[in-house]
Structure formats: structure tokens, C-alpha cells
From TrEMBL:
GO terms for biological process: phenylacetate catabolic process. One of its GO terms (molecular function) is phenylacetyl-CoA 1,2-epoxidase activity. InterPro entries: Aromatic_CoA_ox/epox, Ferritin-like, Ferritin-like_SF, PaaA, PaaA_PaaC. The lineage of its organism: Bacteria, Bacillati, Actinomycetota, Actinomycetes, Micrococcales. This is 1,2-phenylacetyl-CoA epoxidase subunit A.
Length: 321
């Protein structure tokens, strides 16, 4: 039985029923469909955070474009960073179908009110970081995002299909950078190992807090936005890394890591670090936002010119008609 308050909250039981039926039948919710407010809010938060992560994520790697060790590496890295910009654009567009504007989302980001993935608040001091990011960060992104291709909200799921294809390329290029370094000199092998040591734990944290501390997960799973729990996805990721680390000849920096009957046993993750970085006290939080803000301000003339050009074209079309 519903309480009176709950009944009042369901303004239109028919619409709620239609929504529930679509979700139960594994059908997609489209922008034209009625949806509960909480579903809409959850998606706006998740998709916009995802878009911000793609855009902020361009910075740690953009840092190495001018210093890539060869023309070929430079071309690949540029393409990769450009892909991330594209991911941001598809995702901002998907979020816009839910009734938030691109300007609002950008403003939330540069005001420091919106979150983005904490992983991008770590520095990239060596070339091997390009390898470790591709292998670990894009690798974790794939594990997270492949199930999102089936997310119940149509525009989000469809954006994820193309994004995942590109992420697979990113992961392979990172792996290949590490493989090349591991076949090089001792200094190069040390550099690769050091980068993996620094990125391994933060990449495990990308899946979010453990299931028993992730209160919103159950609702997202009931809405079929999320398909697997944080810990399930983390397990899958570790299972993917172990054989690849063997091929690379790289040691994953966890002495306790081993297969234990039916799951990967790992050391305790340092969630204090995660929460510190999440709340803005990571090594690069300030720099990342400052760069994004500066890029937005320096790009103001481009936006103004585009608006002026559109107005001019509209006037011309009017005069011709
Ligand atoms: Fe991406
Ligand atoms: Fe990527």
C-alpha cells in the first residue's frame, strides 16, 4: 500500500505505469516520453559528469602532445585527445535532450559545482603516463561503459556505442606504448613500471565506492541505467588486467592480489585518498579547473562570432524570402 504522500507524488499513474512497463520490457526511454523527475535528474547528473570527465580528461594527455617521442606517436596522441573532445560533445548533446542547456552545464563545471572523474586530477610527469592512462584509465572506462550501451535512456545508450569503439582503440594504444617501453632499456622499463604504480590504484577507484557504501546504485540498477555493481565491474577490470600485465612484464602494485576461489582478492583500497581528491584536494584539481575556465573565457569571441554569423545568415534568408 502506498501512503497518501506517495500517492500525491505520483501525479499521473498512467504515465508512471507506461514508464515502468517500458523499463520492464527492456525498451528505451526517449526524450519525448514521460519520465519520473528523479530519473531525469539522475541522468542529467550522470551524463553531464561523464561529459565533463571527457573534456577535463583531455588535459593530462594534451600535456604531452608537443613532447611525444616521434611524429607517429604525436599523431596518435592528437587523434586520441580529439576523440575525447568528441565524447564530451556527444554526451553534452545527450544531456541536453533532458532539458538542461550546454551553457548551464559548462557554467556548473567552471564554477567548480559539477563533479568529474577524480582520475584526471593526477599529474602526468613522464611519457609512460600516456601508456598507463590508455591501458588503465581507458581500460577502466571500457569496463564501466560497455554495459552503459544498454542503458535505458536511448540517447545515452546510443552515444556510448560509438564511445566504446573509440575507447577500445585508446586502450590498445596505451598498451602498445607500455609494451614498447618494456622492450626498451632498463630506464624505460622503470619508467613504465613507475607510471603503472601511480595509476593502478586510482584506476580501481574509478568504479566508485564499494557496493555497501554506494546508496544510489540500487535505484540506478532498478531503472536499468546501471547494469552491474561497482564491485562487480572492478572485479571484471582486475580480471582483464592480470593476463595483460603478464604479457607486458609489468607488476601490478598489489602484493595481495590473487585469485581466491571465485573472485580476485585485492588489498584494501585507500578510500580516504579517493574522497580527498573527489572533494577537490587532489594534486591537480586547481590546475584542471583553472585551465578549463581560461579556455572558456578565451573562446568567448568564437561563440560571439558564431552567434553573429547565424543572425546574419538568418537575415539574408529572410530578405531572400
Ligand atoms: Fe573518452
Ligand atoms: Fe578514451
Amino acid at each position: 500500500m502506498m501512503t497518501a504522500a506517495q500517492l500525491a507524488a505520483v501525479e499521473s499513474p498512467d504515465e508512471q505505469q507506461a514508464f515502468d512497463a517500458l523499463i520492464a520490457a527492456e525498451q528505451r526511454i526517449e526524450p519525448r516520453d514521460w519520465m519520473p523527475d528523479a530519473y531525469r535528474r539522475t541522468l542529467i547528473r550522470q551524463i553531464s559528469q561523464h561529459a565533463h570527465s571527457e573534456i577535463i580528461g583531455m588535459q593530462p594527455e594534451g600535456n604531452w602532445i608537443t613532447r611525444a617521442p616521434s611524429l607517429k606517436r604525436k599523431a596518435i596522441l592528437m587523434a586520441k585527445v580529439q576523440d575525447e573532445a568528441g565524447h564530451g560533445l556527444y554526451l553534452y548533446s545527450a544531456a541536453q535532450t533532458l532539458g538542461i542547456t550546454r551553457d548551464e552545464m559548462t557554467q556548473q563545471l567552471i564554477d567548480g559545482k559539477a563533479k568529474y572523474s577524480s582520475i584526471f586530477n593526477y599529474p602526468t610527469p613522464t611519457w609512460a603516463d600516456m601508456g598507463a592512462i590508455g591501458w588503465l584509465v581507458d581500460g577502466a572506462a571500457i569496463c564501466n561503459q560497455v554495459p552503459l550501451c544498454r542503458a535505458s535512456y536511448g540517447p545515452y545508450g546510443r552515444a556510448m556505442v560509438r564511445i566504446c569503439k573509440e575507447e577500445s582503440f585508446h586502450q590498445r594504444q596505451g598498451f602498445e606504448i607500455l609494451l614498447t617501453l618494456m622492450q626498451g632499456t632498463e630506464a624505460q622499463r622503470d619508467m613504465a613500471q613507475d607510471a603503472v604504480n601511480r595509476w593502478y590504484w586510482p584506476s580501481l577507484m574509478m568504479f566508485g565506492p564499494p557496493d555497501d557504501e554506494s546508496p544510489n546504485s540500487a535505484q540506478s540498477m532498478a531503472w536499468k541505467i546501471k547494469r552491474f555493481s561497482n564491485d562487480e565491474l572492478r572485479q571484471r577490470f582486475v580480471g582483464m588486467l592480470v593476463p595483460q600485465a603478464e604479457i607486458l612484464g609489468i607488476t601490478l602494485p598489489d602484493p595481495e592480489l590473487h585469485w581466491d576461489e571465485d573472485h580476485w582478492h585485492t588489498s584494501e583500497i585507500d578510500w580516504t585518498e579517493f574522497h580527498e581528491v573527489l572533494s577537490g584536494r587532489g594534486p591537480m584539481n586547481g590546475t584542471r579547473l583553472q585551465n578549463r575556465r581560461a579556455a572558456h573565457e578565451e573562446g568567448a569571441w568564437v561563440r560571439e562570432a558564431a552567434v553573429a554569423y547565424a543572425a546574419k545568415q538568418a537575415k539574408k534568408a529572410e530578405a531572400a524570402a
